[in-house]
Amino acid sequence: TFKYNKILILDQFTTRLLSSCCKMSNLMSEGITIVEDLHKNREPVPEMKAIYFMRPTAECIDKFIDDFKPKPKYKAAFVFFTDYCPDDLFDKMKKNCAKHIKVCKEINISFLPLEAQVSVSGDAFKSLYSPNSKDRDQTLETIANQIVTLCATLDEYPGVRYKKDSANGNKLAELVDNKLARHYELDDNSKKKGKTPALLLIVDRALDPVSPVLHELTYQAMAYDLIPIKDNTYEYDTLKDGSKKEALLNEEDELWVKLRHMHIAEDLAVGADADGQKVKDPMRTLLPVLLHPHDTTDKIRAVLLYIFSLNGTTAENLNKLIQHVKIEEESGYILNWKHLGVPILSTPSMFSFRKPSRRDRSDQETYNVSRWTPVIKDIMEDAVENKLDVKDWPYQSECPSAWNGSRAVSARQKHKGSSPDDLRSGSRLIVFVLGGVSYSEMRCAYEVTHANKSCEVIIGSTHILTPRGLLEDIYNLGKQPMESFNIEDKP
């Protein structure tokens, strides 16, 4: 609809968003010749029209107004917001710049589509779990808005359930359900949308502390655990002349799409039975794999996995473990898990914390290491089979009883390496994990989708976790009172 020679102006979040799904050549083919940063000083180009793609925040609106007062930098503005623009900000923009705005539209995409079935909204770990957090409610509001835009993009109006005893999960489920109701009362057709055969599950990180800490033996998880990968790009030295090159790991890389979930079962398979049977004592499996004589991080991870397997340990035993790892001054790596609701010290009241029951997978293929199955895979499978216990997973809003059933969903964008077309009919399960999701949990969405061809599973979260990154996040929870920040502005 636009002619050539347009300027595209982005904020920090929309820059990441576009980078995750298109290249500069794609933009140029649509007539974009210049891409600019909203928050940086820019030279006026009064003969060109500008497309603004930005979040509806006070900071972005102020920057936009500055572009047209006292003198316009561009011939006209076409404004696209990632999600709903609050009335006060919309009125402020209209009052100051109405004559310059040719288009103003909300397009409902305030999340990052990282893979075919994976999306993230923005790192909010400290806001959610720090005992000193001053903006937890604001952060949950932002996350709720982002989940609503994901549902709107998928054209789904799901029923909402959450994990009982998760205060953050309960609050988020309520916010999302209310915002979805408002969104679908105000759709473009001025027609109220009914519930679709979809289910949104709100899961808290405390449900499964093991998966993001465990050294995952798959291509994707090990790559991010062991290789310094930033923004899906890693740098390597060539053998020929020692020069540095970069490789991009995304949906366009067919080898990456094919291998990212394959098991690596070679020399790393130390410490498991030769037949690949599970070892009952987790330490016998974990110590040879995770304990390195010079790597404190791996020792911390092994200690945590030991504590998680016991559902907490005694203060005396915990002190001995901390001394053994020599982290007396950094004990927060272990102790701060309590802020997530994960039991570290066993107490007489521990009966109130119940580990989730696990599915029997003894008949499934194993490798020569004991394979941990993330708890979230059990949850996904139970949800698809309508077996989630209502006592553990209360309804914030009801969804159709034949949820895992029959309708064909609207056409979706096809991705290289994605599932066959028959996986794209049926219903959707959307799982959102508060506090971050691990690569092993992302893999579960693909596995359950392939196993249950009538249902597509999409997993979303605030951010993606690596074991080392999570440990730093946990450690930082105990630091001094935090300053308030907007999760969308965090790099």
From TrEMBL:
Keywords: Protein transport, Transport. It comes from the Eukaryota. The keyword Transport applies. InterPro entries: Sec-1-like_dom1, Sec1-like, Sec1-like_dom2, Sec1-like_sf. One of its GO terms (biological process) is vesicle-mediated transport. PANTHER family: VESICLE PROTEIN SORTING-ASSOCIATED. Belongs to the STXBP/unc-18/SEC1 family. This is Syntaxin binding protein 3.
